[in-house]
Amino acid sequence: MNKDNHSMTNESILTGFTDHPDLKTVMFVVFFAIYPITMVGNLGLVVLTFMEIRLHTPMYIFLGNLALTDSCCSCAITPKMLENFFSKDRMISLYERMAQFYFLCLAETADCFLLAAVAYDRYVAICSPLHYHTMMSKQHCIQMTIAGNVHSLIHIVLLLRLTFCGSHQINHFFCDVLPLYRLSCIDPYINELMILIFAGFVQIFTITVVLISYLCILFTIFKMKSKEGRGKALSTCASHFLSVSIFYGSLLFVYIRPSSVKEGDTDIPVAISFIL
């Protein structure tokens, strides 16, 4: 086998959605409509948080950072996906691959911390309102932002240790890390282990924060004397808990489940749920 087949070539081929050519136009229209809505919403939140002094609080600062990260992720993934609906070669360069995975990993990590931060914020506001400003500080938001960047960089560096051979066809609509592992001509065991350790730690830690926060909130709610107050608080908790279940369920299914590296076709529908 020649040298080119044992190195990370500058270009690969994205083959996602090619199994359904009859739905190509419909999917293009749907994704094309969602993309500007997502960008306007996210960038609008960033501008609003920056311009409005009253929103310079830890939670809104973190929300603004998350919105900016999601915008970068959408810019890295969606335009290339839309182009590939009607492109003949479906090529993606090395730098595009790295950018897509970096911003995806950063956005996913930020989402995990955000869901935990929202739950913790509600816990402090309901159960310890007098200590809110000391327990929810800008320093905590900065630390979570740094953690998301470090987590992404670790997997980018580990990805560069792999060499690839074969067709260089990525069975996905963007360059996620697991489809790349399937193309590796060396054993990606270390990379898989690091995914399990770091992604597992982030998810277990944030899920634990969410569960403990809401258990404490529920305990406080059930001690309330007002039925109306209990109903409003429970409805708020239920909507957020549904968001938590969908997001974490998708991530656990794609990255943490056994044999996730070998199974490719089932990843695409699930990936759409947390990309959009």
Strand percentage lies at: under 5%
What's the N-to-C terminus distance? 40 Å
So what's the overall shape?
Answer: globular
Q: What is the number of beta strands?
A: 3
The portion of residues assigned to helices is over 70%
Task: Specify Rg, calculated over alpha carbons.
Answer: 21 Å
The string of secondary-structure elements, in order, is EHHEHHHEHHHH
Task: Explain what you see.
- The chain has 276 residues and is mainly alpha-helical.
- Helices cover 70% and strands 3% of the residues.
- The chain has nine helices and three strands; from the N terminus they run E-H-H-E-H-H-H-E-H-H-H-H.
- It has helices at 24-51, 58-84, 94-127, 132-135, 138-159, 177-183, 189-221, 227-256, 267-275; strands spanning 11-14, 91-93, 169-170.
- It has a three-stranded mixed beta sheet with strand order 2-1-3.
- It starts with 10 loop residues before the first strand and ends with a helix.
- Mean pLDDT is 76; it is low at 1-8.
